Amino acid sequence: MKIPLPRLAPAILLLCATLALAAPASAQDWTKTILDKSPRHQEWVKVKYGDRTPNPRTIDAFVVYPEVSHKAPVVLLIHEIFGLSDWARSMADDIAAMGYIVIAPDLLSGFGPNSGGTSAFPDQQSIIKAVSGLDPATVTADLNATADYALKLPSANGKLAVIGFCWGGGQSFRFATNRKGLSAAFVFYGPPPPAESLKTITAPVYGFYAGSDARISATVPDTGTSMAAAGKTYDPVIYDDAGHGFMRAGEDPSNTNPANTAARTQALKRLESLLKTM
Prior knowledge:
Elements (H helix, E strand, L loop, with lengths): L8 H13 L7 H9 L4 E8 L7 E8 L7 E7 L7 H11 L4 E5 L18 H9 L3 H16 L4 E10 L1 H12 L5 E5 L16 E6 L3 H4 L2 H10 L4 E6 L6 H4 L8 H18 L3
């Protein structure tokens, strides 16, 4: 497969930003309606870590519990470049409905106006700029602390997977290079980490990509070659004619591309099936 574009993180961030600005926050009110109708227990928690006494770093995280009678695996959900939006939280609820404890950290915690998080920013453009500027080391530390918190919950069974979307998809792939003991990493239309870092991955990586998203999907063949050379499991699927962000667009009432809806439906079925293998 011909690779028409290089793997440039700035270009990917620009794509995500363009898509975000094309859809105002008010257009996503339907996601809050979905959340409000959920029968599952949802709560906000504060995850504190670090030795910066008396002011350790504090992460606000959204947790959704499944309605099950047994201990469940944990899924760490990494939000898009839009921050921890209502849609990201509704996606956490969707996965919890499959039988998993889902925790979604707000990686902008403390970086917003008045030391707030995603909701403290005045507009979507400022959120995108802030997420784009996050320090990778801080993101990794935040994700590790959030995962550790969730794994200590009484109803957690000790297994951990990570999932991310767009910017978060790239972070999910990168987290797999840093975190030992992962059961699986799920990458939704996110870029791969540098090839030299793939050798440290210990979990299978499953990719979900859009056919009409060459800026991202064009990286898949080279990533497959690099993962194979490193002896790692990489299983990507590209959904024909779907656009970048199809998981969000596929349930948006204003969506005009039926391929987005089909891709979302198929991806959810695949995700549920793969999670069961944990």
